[in-house]
Amino acid sequence: xxxxxxxxxxxxxxxxxxxxxxxxxxxxxxxxxxxxxxxxxxxxxxxxxxxxxxxxxxxxxxxxxxxxxxxxxxxxxxxxxxxxxxxxxxxxxxxxxxxxxxxxxxxxxxxxxxxxxxxxxxxxxxxxxxxxxxxxxxxxxxxxxxxxxxxxxxxxxxxxxxxxxxxxxxxxxxxxxxxxxxxxxxxxxxxxxxxxxxxxxxxxxxxxxxxxxxxxxxxxxxxxxxxxxxxxx
Length: 233
Ligand SMILES: Nc1nc2c(ncn2[C@@H]2O[C@H](COP(=O)(O)OP(=O)(O)O)[C@@H](O)[C@H]2O)c(=O)[nH]1
Ligand SMILES: [Mg+2]
What we know:
This protein is of the alpha/beta class. It has 6 helices and 9 strands; from the N terminus they run E-E-H-E-E-H-E-H-E-H-E-E-H-H-E. The chain has a 7-stranded mixed β-sheet, sandwiched between helices. The longest helix has 19 residues. The protein starts with 5 loop residues before the first strand and ends in a 10-residue tail after the last strand. Bound molecules: guanosine-5'-diphosphate (GDP) and magnesium ion. Magnesium ion (MG) binds next to helix 1.
């Protein structure tokens, strides 16, 4: 997929302030500092689009970027930085929770996990929450350049093992490194596939309905049963 334009749209503190629901949205979420803004810039092919911060918790609003005038990338506030600013982070986390549960044009969530770290409780709890709320998502393991490949693979395997009980079919997984420029075609491919499915759905024909069902199934992990929810917010 070619990116011909990437334009900052707006920032919203809550669901009510989000732009109209006319374009499909692909949202990035993960713990603060996991590399959401870096990945968004990397996918959009524009360095300064989303702000990259060395300070965790810097992005506190929901940021919308319109790509190719056809769909949006959404940079969601990071979770897990309650320290010192508890009330404020709760408010923004509630906005994120509302966005994930009620945004009708939300097509797919990219749940980012730091591949340099062993499974973190907060990330596991968040994936459980996504599963419990039937939010369509894929996992993206970021910063694969930070540790040796064997460590990265071990961290990913441990994470998948930890979440395996919640799914009949595990969520799709991707790896990326914004620093090394790795993972872009695969992630843009997921978006392109989802966009084709949406377009096929808008103009149903005998075969497109079947294609849509297949594509939707590919990105939506199937749940075993509703798990106990340990909500990060
Ligand atoms: N080694 C490495 N560092 C990265 C990568 N992506 C982002 N970072 C760094 O991680 C920090 C947080 O990045 P940012 O994109 O602001 O994370 P966000 O808080 O999730 O939006 C910054 O210092 C980035 O330079 C990556 O692929 N590899
Ligand atoms: Mg950010």
